[in-house]
Amino acid sequence: MTEVRVPTLGESVTEATVATWFKKPGDAVAVDEMLCELETDKVTVEVPAPAAGVLGEIVAAEGDTVGVDALLAVINAGEGAAPAPAAAEAPQSAPAASGGNAVDVMVPTLGESVTEATVSTWFKAVGDTVAQDEMLCELETDKVSVEVPAPAAGVLTEIVAPEGTTVDASAKLAVIGGASAGASAAPAAAPAPAAAPAASADVENAPSANKMMAEKGIDPASVTGTGRDGRIMKEDVMKAALAPAPAAAAAPTAAPRAPVAAEDEAREERVKMTRLRQTIARRLKDSQNTAAMLTTYNEVDMGAVMELRNQYKAEFEKKHGVRLGFMSFFTKACCHALKEVPEVNAEIDGTDIVYKNFVHMGVAAGTPTGLVVPVIRDADSMSFAEIEKAIAEKGKRARDGKLSMAEMQGGTFTLSNGGVYGSLMSSPILNPPQSGILGMHKIQDRPMAINGEVVIRPMMYLALSYDHRIVDGKGAVTFLVRVKEALEDPRRLLMDL
């Protein structure tokens, strides 16, 4: 007998609600086949089978609230593993190589809280021969791009989800025929239906979905359920809440499109927003709607940092194998200032303020597909060289679209360097649930009055945007002054002053 328990739910999450059981007692299950879905106040978590067998008792029924590591069900040993689908079940669009089996290509694990993706590119066509682990296609989620390798060698006989298709986390993407003997197929999951049936009166919706519909005043009849039997899930309500208003009524958050002359319309190009761009837009707007955001400014003389960098950059690169940039100085200065003003490194959770006794520094990076914020974990305990190496590695992975979900979660404060694009001044937007973000800008020679004389100095404007709900003006100004002091005299960092 094997126990099925609640997995780790994520940072600060201690309980969940059993939303949907995909299996019932007596059903045969395969290893890693999805048994049930849990909902927390932040994410939806799928629970896979830890072993093959027959599902015995279900201890936690749909609607039950369970804690971390609570017992959900038991799997009994038996004739158990759900059989792989026969090759005949998959319609063949191209002849399969003889002497092999059909293997389904499934959507891989997308990461915590990610429930669907869009097929962006197919690298292979139907009829192509593929090697095991050769890249077949690329999926795009609202946070990262995911490459899908071939689970076995053979011939690509069918593409179930063409480019542009939105698929859920358990959907089938394609079929490989003529797979070599011994190649194991992932347990088949039924392809997501093109449109989930509307929830009927005798189908119980997810508790969190009912709560959200009541809070937002959403009619259940207007929500399309994607759960089992048309069950309405929390994500369905969120999508309905974000959906644009009908054409008859102008959307309250966006002005109607201005009339366009026919000859101008013919010269326009309409491109659908990527899922990443849609998420960026939604999160930034949510940040403005939620936080009491305010920005305070200061300026810093970068002469001391530039002189120190020029003096040691060759030795630094020779010893550590990475260039000495400005970001390590700013990271160190911010970590130093956050110790004195901890509320800038905190977040609001309901009616509580959560102070972080560590600094996970988010470093905003522009990529061809949009802005992402990889996180340098425990930056406050890292050396200059460790920070530079981490920033270089994360930046490259961001540009290549290789960042994982874990690499973009858990940040406590963010640095945004608009100066690399020539920005002289800006007001950065908070990256929720963080309460502070520092905007760096272009270094520009300006005349400054120093000791009664006008001299030319390399100056940079700094902008700290902060959540005024927990950060007072005094704290914000103090933070910026400490950053300025540390950069204008880097020796203060060594002396912890």
From TrEMBL:
Gene3D superfamilies: 2.40.50.100, Chloramphenicol acetyltransferase-like domain, E3-binding domain. One of its GO terms (molecular function) is dihydrolipoyllysine-residue succinyltransferase activity. Residues 248-261 have a biased composition (Low complexity). Its cofactor is (R)-lipoate. Keywords: Acyltransferase, Lipoyl, Transferase, Tricarboxylic acid cycle. GO terms for cellular component: cytosol; oxoglutarate dehydrogenase complex. This is Dihydrolipoyllysine-residue succinyltransferase component of 2-oxoglutarate dehydrogenase complex. Residues 1-76, 102-177 form the Lipoyl-binding domain. It comes from the Bacteria. Its EC number is 2.3.1.61. SUPFAM superfamilies: CoA-dependent acyltransferases, Peripheral subunit-binding domain of 2-oxo acid dehydrogenase complex, Single hybrid motif. It comes from Shimia isoporae. NCBIfam families: PRK05704.1, sucB. Pathway: Amino-acid degradation; L-lysine degradation via saccharopine pathway; glutaryl-CoA from L-lysine: step 6/6. Belongs to the 2-oxoacid dehydrogenase family.
